[in-house]
Recover the amino acids of this structure.
């Protein structure tokens, strides 16, 4: 399998301390400055954070974007379903932004990035799916691409059926070459792990608070190792 | 030129319905284009605005594009539409 290197990353969550890490934004309301105001108004907080992080990692806007989220914008979807049940007409803007590829789509319009994009939901295996897809694109000849993993709390009505989650998003630039301060992503089989990985777990791992992360469903684990010179 | 009460009401409806951040009623010039230029609204906003007119004033717009274009040209033409066709 192709080697995969973590070349750079950005993250957003108001639910932990930055501990001096400049790549982690902990503001309650991300600025969303990468997106013009007329487009930004339709993005939720996570969407604003993701667009800013993508712009920071890819100022040339020439990289493929893979965006994974287990639940997407559940609140918006549920609100529309309640409305439909009442016989209310659907709001076109809300419908447009409730789809799973909404944030990536707005980013593409705002930045002019016309590379491929993919929106992924994988029942708790989002991280494993992102890495598998990334290997595919790198094997296909891409030198680097952007991975996004974001989620927000599941609407109250469904909270009992899903693990508790907090708003967080992480964006990683991965590639086939160890450029800059890159670290090598090493995959292991059948690691110990109990619950599905969420964006906050990835942030914890990137900040060095965890050595390994594991996806119990795909029975794979990952750790970052320094690049040997 | 003074803004009529209806124009003021429509300005507030546009800002609220279309979630226009950082736009105040004073920013909307009744004679400036609402779409593309001027306020800079897009096609999704047009659909959203059509829905709001239906909900609030009971106006159903015909699907024919040219007349909608005229009604949505600016705030003044929108106010004229509401004035002449409102059901509530």
């Amino acid at each position: 399998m192709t080697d995969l290197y973590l070349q750079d990353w950005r993250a957003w969550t108001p639910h932990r301390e930055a501990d001096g890490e400049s790549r982690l934004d902990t503001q309650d309301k991300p600025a969303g400055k990468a997106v013009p105001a007329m487009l930004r108004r339709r993005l939720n907080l996570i969407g604003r954070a993701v667009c800013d992080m993508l712009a920071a990692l890819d100022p040339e806007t020439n990289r493929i974007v893979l965006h994974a989220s287990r639940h997407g914008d559940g609140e918006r979807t549920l609100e529309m379903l309640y409305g439909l049940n009442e016989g209310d007409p659907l709001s076109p803007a809300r419908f447009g932004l409730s789809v799973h590829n909404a944030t990536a789509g707005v980013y593409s319009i705002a930045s002019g990035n016309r590379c491929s994009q993919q929106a992924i939901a994988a029942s708790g295996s989002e991280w494993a799916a992102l890495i598998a897809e990334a290997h595919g694109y790198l094997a296909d000849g891409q030198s680097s691409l952007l991975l996004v993993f974001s989620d927000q709390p599941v609407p109250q009505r469904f909270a009992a059926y899903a693990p508790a989650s907090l708003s967080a998003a992480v964006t990683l630039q991965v590639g086939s070459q160890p450029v800059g301060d890159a670290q090598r992503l090493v995959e292991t089989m059948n690691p110990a792990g109990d619950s599905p990985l969420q964006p906050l777990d990835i942030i914890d791992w990137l900040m060095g608070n965890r050595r390994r992360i594991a996806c119990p469903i795909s029975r794979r684990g990952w750790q970052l190792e320094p690049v040997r010179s | 030129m003074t803004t009529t009460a209806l124009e003021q009401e429509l300005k507030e409806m546009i800002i609220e319905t279309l979630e226009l951040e950082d736009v105040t009623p004073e920013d909307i010039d009744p004679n400036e284009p609402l779409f593309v230029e001027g306020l800079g609204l897009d096609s999704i906003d047009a659909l959203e605005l059509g829905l709001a007119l239906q909900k609030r004033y009971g106006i159903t717009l015909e699907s024919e594009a040219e007349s909608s274009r005229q009604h949505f040209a600016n705030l003044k033409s929108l106010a004229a539409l509401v004035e002449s066709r409102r059901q509530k």
Q: What stands out?
A: Chain B has one domain: 5-85. The helical segments of chain B are 5-17, 43-57, 65-71, 75-85. Chain B has a mean pLDDT of 91.
